[in-house]
Amino acid sequence: MPTASSHLLREPSPIVLSVCTSLGNLCRCERGTIVAGTTVLLVLHSSSSALRESSVTWPSRLHLRTRRLIMSKQLQARRLNGIDHNPWVEFIRLAKEYDVVNLGQGFPDFSPPDFAVQAFQQATSGDFMLNQYTMAFGYPPLTKILASFFGKLLGQELDPLKNMLVTVGAYGALFTAFQALVDEGDEVIIIEPAFDCYEPMTLMAGGRPVFVSLKPSPAAKGQLESSNDWQLDPTELASKFTPRTKALVLNTPNNPLGKVFSKKELELVADLCQQHDVLCISDEVYQWLVYDGHQHVSIASLPGMWERTLTIGSAGKSFSATGWKVGWVMGPDRILKHLRTVHQNSIFHCPTQAQAAVAQCFEREQQHFGQPSSYFLQLPQAMKLNRDHMIRSLQSVGLKPLIPQGSYFLIADISDFKSKMPNLPGAEDEPYDRRFAKWMIKNKGLVAIPVSIFFSQPHQKDFDHYIRFCFVKDEATLQAMDERLQKWKKELQP
Ligand SMILES: Cc1ncc(COP(=O)(O)O)c(C=O)c1O
Description:
Strand content: 15-25%
Bound molecules: pyridoxal-5'-phosphate
Low-confidence stretches: 1-14, 19-31, 64-69
Shape: globular
Strand order of the largest sheet: 8-16-15-14-13-9-10
Helix content: 25-40%
């Protein structure tokens, strides 16, 4: 929607008003009173320029209490230009408006494990000092246990003070990393489909996103495709590195595809990062959610990579408690010290009680790790059943799911629908998957997210025939999904 930002002044008459259409407010008037019958030039603004002007005869006398109701200068910082439209907003709104089963957003709708709930309760009702500030870079028992837990996995001796930073969710870790490391004009390679904040975070830091797409290859006849069939072209990837490349963003297991990068694929990325002296920002929030015996490999564990990698994790995804918003980033001190500068001067720290609860959860997990009682083992076992349930159900109406090897998500191919019902309502240039997802919400009561939003603008048309479902949902939600799909199936029968 256009927003108020600046004004056009045409003296002496008519009176010029800038108008913020989203709020319906008058934002600037050059005179204090408009009498009925005055000709007023209304100027509708986008963020940076006048969109439309029209002359109206003002219907009644209007006193403006202040000369400026809303600032008429360009309101937002230039770094927001081009990123102020977020397609999620529309889908979240639609999901609220209709009676739907929401398989769109990536959060569990079941309880975290009992030990996690108890840890949080204890953190809020126990030591009153947990109501106060703690160390800026992390509550000491949390940084200590994170360093010990991940140090073993990565084969590194980690110093809780130097190699760990606790942040407000993995989002906080990403933001801090981009702000600390990406400079004006730096290029950042983003492997797409990509979690949709990498591009705006690069832009906000003044960097230039450079995209390289994973490309699908067809599955064997009669078989379902797998997220593993989506591969990087090594020559294309190599061609994206230039002397301006500062960092590459990796996400394994990948959102939205569910791809788990193999060691061989990671070695390719690692070699190129080392050859071109590039940092790797590795988003591994779904690292425990890996299925069918596939292995999650942290790129930081490969030879020569610890020194140039930031590894990002999320307690929300690890313990099915996304609202806690505790994340972390680990890496060598020489890189982390710059993230600490950003963190110290922006967020300062993440809520102490939530950090204390996460520390307890990791203490518990460290005792059980590798055993059947480990939550990091139980969660993927349970979610694999959900995944398989969803894969079976979606096929009943002709949606073609790709089998994900990891993460909360699977994507389904809707190209059959695209050829059968190509003219779904929507804007002319709107990618098909967005029109389909809206149609599905309104007509079938199911929410999924169009996959084109995980691609850069120029590539969206090539990937406009997939939608993303989240299967980290309660049994009752999956049953409700089944009911909707059965109804849809009946409607399809002649
Ligand atoms: C790939 C990826 N990274 C980071 C995040 C953010 O995690 P957090 O909730 O810990 O901020 C998400 C959340 O959906 C995600 O999918």
